[in-house]
Design a protein that fits this description.
The complex is a heterodimer of chains A (119) and B (364). Chain A has one helix at residues 3-10, and strands at residues 15-19, 25-26, 44-48, 52-61, 72-78, 83-87, 99-103, 113-115. By secondary structure, chain A is mostly beta strands. The model of chain A has no long low-confidence stretch (mean pLDDT 90). In chain B, a hairpin with a 4-residue loop joins strand 9 (343-350) and strand 10. The longest helix of chain B is centred in the last third of the chain and has 17 residues, at 314-330. Chain B is α/β, with parallel strands linked by helices. Classes of the chains: A mainly beta (119), B alpha/beta (364). At the A-B interface, strand 4, strand 5 and strand 6 of A face helix 5, helix 6 and strand 4 of B.
């Protein structure tokens, strides 16, 4: 894990929640484990997310909501323990199943962005 | 017409249809998704009740994004079934077309995408629906032609509905050549921006010339982010809501003669037709292809044109579905009448099945 991911974790951009009773991971973080219920509040704690995953599905949204650039490349990434949504930078076409890494967005517009691994 | 005028117009229609002298209305519930953001106006319940001359009565707005209409209907039903009220007017209304599409998209995104997991990434309903659609088509080896079939059918039905927004037949070729919104979705796969209203009057005792009875209502809520739900190719909250509604109605999916499903995006009609229990998982598209769901088929779906072609005025949609089914059960659906329709089902939901209401009606 590089310094970029560490910084995002410090800034709580890649923090989810994990129930240490059943292992359920929530992102964004939640307070009550949906499997164990409100009787086990003490078991749900903040947890770091993995910083890479595989593409589950994607689309190119031609007209983004006001305030965002168009088009936007959206993608759902499977981090193994939870699936999260983000925008993909640096490419126009995505293949189902391909690997992406989660990076800091240098423009500051998004909480994080997805990139193809450089190596 | 403005938002209040639309709501009042529909409300008057329902009161006129009831045609009762000395009618006493105990409550007015207005289903509306986003009047604050779209029209700069809140407090629709009291505003509409006053304009209809129904004061003093209970009046409130009920909001559950695109399920606002069916939630207002559900609350009215429960107040009456619980013995608290005798007569409730349910109005659904929304006005959306007066603002630019980009702004309306932002309003819809802010009300239906996850605030910190999706909205902040510029996700909108079309982008989420597109990603769901891509997965579903791939899983069951379907093509965008199956999506087009939903749009073609619902446009054809809308041609028979004078209240529908679109009065235009489209072909599969038209659908497959319409502009791309978000791959694989094209314009014809997405419900339009619509101004509209609908209303129904619910009463404890049947007084209407052709009474329609509420047999069961089921409501269930699931996680907002569809890719984090317990099933990838189904809408779990719909299965749960349908189970509750059928249990309450003491009916099964095979008893239903006509249905209104929430086709905000074409793929949803196919998925819902499976999850509600009409067809096995993965076989909804085949039923559509075989004509089972068209008027004249064994189980006509979206006879009024659906959200796709009747239009999708967010908070009005759930009520408009009930109105269409009421006409069908009364035998008043004219050219689009389903022969001898005895039992009917409506499915209205928020977002991509975040919160789902299933209602079952029959001819009493």
């Amino acid at each position: 894990m590089g310094s970029v991911a560490e910084q995002m974790i410090r800034e709580k951009k890649l923090l989810g929640s994990k129930c240490d009773r059943c292992g359920y991971v929530g992102f964004p973080a939640i307070s009550v484990c949906p499997k164990c219920g409100p009787g086990y509040l003490d078991h749900v704690k903040l947890a770091e997310l993995p910083t890479k995953g595989a593409v589950v599905t994607w689309t190119k949204l031609r007209v983004a909501p006001k305030g965002f650039p168009s088009p936007l490349l959206h993608c759902v990434l499977d981090l193994g323990i939870v699936k999260i949504l983000g925008t993909v930078q640096g490419t126009e076409e995505i293949r189902l199943g391909e690997k992406m890494v989660i990076m800091e967005d240098t423009s500051g517009r998004f909480p994080y962005v997805f990139w193809r691994p450089t190596s | 017409m403005g938002l209040v005028e639309l709501a009042v117009d529909a409300g008057l229609g329902a009161l006129k249809d009831a045609a009762q002298e000395n009618l006493k209305v105990d409550a007015v519930y207005v289903g509306n998704a986003a009047s604050g953001q779209l029209c700069g106006m809140e407090n629709l319940g009291p505003i509409v009740a006053e304009r209809l001359g129904l004061l003093p009565c209970e009046a409130q707005r009920i909001e559950a994004t695109t399920a606002s209409g069916s939630c207002a209907f559900k609350e009215a039903y429960r107040e009456i079934a619980g013995g608290f009220l005798d007569t409730v007017l349910v109005v659904g209304a929304e006005k959306m077309t007066h603002i630019p599409t980009e702004d309306a998209t932002k309003v819809l995104a802010s009300s239906m995408t996850h605030p910190t997991g999706e909205t902040v990434h510029g996700a909108s309903m079309p982008s989420l629906a597109a990603m769901f659609t891509r997965r579903y088509l791939e899983k069951f080896n379907l093509s965008t032609k199956h999506l087009a079939l939903v749009a073609v059918k619902n446009h054809a039905n809308a041609l028979l509905n004078p209240y529908a927004q679109f009065q235009k037949k489209i072909t599969i070729e038209d659908a497959l050549s319409s502009p791309i919104v978000a791959e694989p979705l094209r314009v014809t796969d997405c419900a339009p921006m619509t101004d509209g209203a609908a209303a129904v009057l619910l009463q404890a005792k049947p007084t209407s010339r052709v009474p329609v009875r509420i047999r069961g209502v089921g409501h269930s809520t699931d996680r907002q982010m569809f890719y984090q739900r317990s099933e990838e190719f189904a809408i779990p909250a719909l299965k749960d809501a349908a189970r509750k509604a059928f249990q309450s109605a003491q009916l099964t999916p095979s008893d239903i003669d006509v249905a209104e499903l929430h086709d905000a995006f074409t793929v949803l009609e196919i998925v819902e037709s499976e999850d509600v229990g009409f067809f096995p998982k993965g076989e909804g598209a085949k039923a559509l292809e075989d004509g089972v769901t068209q008027i004249g088929g064994r189980l006509p779906i979206n006879t009024g044109g659906g959200l796709k072609a009747r239009g999708h005025p967010l908070g009005a949609t759930g009520v408009a579905q009930i109105v269409e089914l009421t006409w069908q059960l009364r035998g008043e659906a004219e050219q689009r009448q389903v022969a001898d329709a005895k039992a009917a089902l409506a499915c209205n939901f928020a977002g991509l099945g975040n919160s789902v209401v299933v209602t079952i009606l029959d001819r009493s």
